[in-house]
Description:
Layout: H1 2-29, H2 32-56, H3 58-64, H4 66-75, H5 80-103, E1 114-119, H6 147-157, E2 160-164, H7 167-177, E3 181-186, H8 188-197, E4 203-209, E5 219-220, H9 222-232
Parallel strand pairs: 1-2, 1-3, 3-4
Antiparallel strand pairs: 4-5
Helix pairs in contact: 1-2, 2-3, 5-8
The chain binds iron/sulfur cluster.
Iron/sulfur cluster binds next to helix 6.
Amino acid sequence: MKRFYIVNIFLFLFFALWGFLTVFLSSHYHEWGFLVVSAIPFFVSILFLNLLLSVCCVLYTLFLVYPIIELTATLLKLDFDALRRDIIEYSNRYMIIGIEKRRGCLKSYEGAEVLLLLPHCLQNSDCLYKVTWDKLDNCRLCGKCSMPDIVEIKKKYGVSAVVVSGGTAAREIIKQRRPKCVLAVACENDLISGLREVRNIPVIAVLNQRLCGPCRDTTVDISVIKSYLDRLIK
Ligand code: SF4
């Protein structure tokens, strides 16, 4: 693998240098034919850089080129949500491997280091109690939505659990709390946006279920959240 990186870096530098040289020659001798030739080494160098990036930082590259993937999926009329679910599943697997590699083992977090982010649509839409931000304890545990299970998880694992009203609020809470790991519950679209934006901490994504349509009275498979926390928390 080390040899692969070295060869790629060398080839990238070689073609980039070749490109710069042809541009320099064309401007110096006013030979604009050189400029046409320079496009080839520049193109090849970008190719090698992409190859290098895609092997070194697979997830980074995946989310970087995500708009292109989306465009291709639209052109080919592919099932968007299925594609997003595949990417989320792949990202989760990659995050778990990353945590194991960096921290020695997966079960390496204190409860307080993990932030459980939940969408506000998880709350029953007729509920009169405010549970967003750090107001989860306002829940009267009536059982009309998944909040009582979240309250129980919060107590059992000692994680901080926050219900957010959208992506901006989620970003803000991550900035404030500085967790070591995030377990985020949301729909495919919001999870992909979050995964593309949060780059410095591992984010495990859990999909919600939208039995009443989007953004209203959603639910989540509590056993999935618990199984991730069982694997992450010491
Ligand atoms: S369980 Fe809590 S949040 Fe859900 S409807 Fe009842 S009081 Fe509201």
